[in-house]
Amino acid sequence: MSAALTRYRVMAYITGVMLIVLLTGTAIRLTTGDDTLVTIVGPAHGFLYMVYLVTAFDLAVRAKWRFVRTVLVLLAGTVPFVSFIAERAVTRWVRADLGQRVPGDDHRAPATSGS
Predict the structure, then answer these.
(1) How many angstroms separate the CA atoms of 73 and 87, rounded?
(2) Per residue in 39-93, pLDDT tens?
(3) DSSP secondary structure string, 48-90?
(4) Burial of 65 by CB count in 10 Å (0-12 exposed, 13-18 middle, 19+ buried)?
(5) Given CB 3.0 to 4.6 Å as the disulfide criterion, which of 58, 74, 87, 96 pairs with 12?
(6) Where are the chain's structural domains?
């Protein structure tokens, strides 16, 4: 499942960046009329989003997520910046399931019994 998580993480970042670039291109097109960036990035983002869907669904099946969680993660690639937030959450979920340490949780000191 670790390899599936890595594939998902890569695609989440790529999809998120491409969506931001596409929205920037859309803003440029609306303000200047130049649609070059949208023409190039639009189809690339569409294709890469499909790859994101496959990798996210593969991870969801391997991790045995419920339907709602799966759908929310799949939709995360359609809203700017949400794919980055979802990637962090998914990484925590999967690593917790695998029993791995989750970076960023170091502030939680283990409970000790002292005398």
Answers:
(1) 8
(2) 999 999 999 999 999 999 999 999 999 999 999 999 998 998 999 999 999 999 9
(3) HHHHHHHHHHHHHHHHT--HHHHHHHHHGGGSTTHHHHHHHHH
(4) buried
(5) 87
(6) 2-98
User: Do residues 1 and 58 lie in contact, with contact meaning Cβ atoms separated by under 8 Å?
Assistant: no
By residue count, the chain amounts to 115
Q: What are phi and psi of 15, to 5 degrees?
A: -65, -45
Residue pair 56/73 in contact (Cβ under 8 Å)? The answer is yes
Contact between residue 20 and residue 80 where contact means Cβ atoms under 8 Å apart: yes
Distance CA 100, CA 7 (A): 18
**Which candidate, 25, 21, 48, places its Cα nearest to that of 38?**
25
